[in-house]
DNA sequence: CCGTTGATATCATTATTTATGATATGAACT
DNA sequence: AGTTCATATCATAAATAATGATATCAACGG
């Protein structure tokens, strides 16, 4: 039994006539007759009494009519409910730390854009405080930040979990030695600087010397050239491991992993583009967190 | 949007994979892909995020899934509910007065039998009291009687409404004269005798003389031969008006019309054959009572 | 008695829709 | 680079639905 059968059945039941129903449906009479007969034989019951003035529902038919009404009603309601949700079109302003922008966003944005080609994406990089302010000021729809954010007007979705490693120039294998080197950071507010500061405090008595490099690429270049050491997501190094001349030290502290979360305003109107983006990142995260490919149901 | 689309959609949503869903449905993967894509384009929304491990519902898709579950559930429930109602097969014992049996039952039984060829119909004629007793004794499933029946164990459905007329031999046009004639009746308990008795009491002072003829055809023959007068449903006379040599007098009393009702036991199990028959006569009555062929809805 | 009307049923044919099979594409993992 | 495991595409085959012509059947009217 199919909903198209029920649609036809309903009209026949209401019109009390196959001919009338066919006219109403824009079908030929024989087709409607055949559909009704097929429905009856499929269900193994008589749905109509045939008489020379048309068709009249049997009690079985009346039962089916009540189901048919509910089913067709739900189908229409569903169509209504879904056609209301329009495909997202328009700008979507996302903020991000530089590291996240270079590690995670290219892939994420590529697949998101493939799904929603009408969305005009733009990424603004900056330090955590700047990004939070822009989100609060409605300059950004949302931002990826690596601090835990507890602002009352913001809500956050944990997104990425990156292993952080200390990197040093090739040949610098002595962890004690490298702690004396300057530390290359993006800016004076970045989370990597804070973590390094904390770590150095625990490890050594000396106050670390920071050099602000401005971009991730500049930091990597500086490390390779032996200017200093730095703290970076492991994945950034692994990506082009072969072409890089760096040594990796595992960071043996509690801040070994860095969680990045996506923040949005708690109150504001959620645009269709942002809504789609939120959906999308939630979906991607579920996939990435899923333990393995579930093999089941033979 | 069709229920078959929803059935496929549901499996894909649950399996999280078109390939798996196709396997489960016994379809080829490309078909499922096409159906889902068509559904999406028909609704104008994206129902799934595609990723390299399969498909994941969007929030729009989740909404549709909840509708799909309800719709498919109702379809299954309907199938269940209807397949339980078996086609009636077996004997159906009906009682009837002779007049009703000859006027109404041939047509009624013909069309009923056409609808339910598995039902083995049988008619028992008799007077009202005998029929009532047989129904109460479970010897008959039901009976057409022309008395108002108020027995506590019986319920009744009004069925036919027949105009009664007094008939006399051709040439007997004087109403005063014919009241002196004997009255031909089926039996001493029949309703026609009672009505005539009442009418004669109002009309004349003389006590009427009744002759029991046993069958309707015998009465008609007796009237034609000038043996006496009788009271019969007008339709019986009209049926073969041309071939009969009788005169019709309208009965000018309150019993002008005779109502026939179908009685059944109130309590007993209603067999599928009886249930179908009840349904059927209710339907036929609605048709006959309907004022005209309803013309509507352009 | 016979033809007309107004309904459903049947059936061969056509049109449309659905399913298939082969192949392309694409991302992740090795 | 190659393998694996997904979805997407496309020409074609198979199944299903719609059509048009015709049959049937009961009621009605002349």
UniProtKB/TrEMBL annotation, chains A, B:
Pfam family example for this protein? HTH_1
Q: Where is the HTH lysR-type domain?
A: 1-58
Q: This protein's superkingdom?
A: Bacteria
A GO molecular-function annotation: DNA-binding transcription factor activity
Q: What InterPro entries does its record include?
A: LysR_HTH_N, LysR_subst-bd, WH-like_DNA-bd_sf, WH_DNA-bd_sf
Instruction: Please name the PROSITE patterns in this protein's record.
Output: HTH_LYSR (PS50931)
TM ranges are none
Transcription regulation recorded as keyword: yes
Its keywords, alphabetically, are: DNA-binding, Transcription, Transcription regulation
Family classification: Belongs to the LysR transcriptional regulatory family.
Q: What is the protein name for this chain?
A: DNA-binding transcriptional LysR family regulator
Lineage of the species this protein comes from: Bacteria, Bacillati, Bacillota, Bacilli, Bacillales
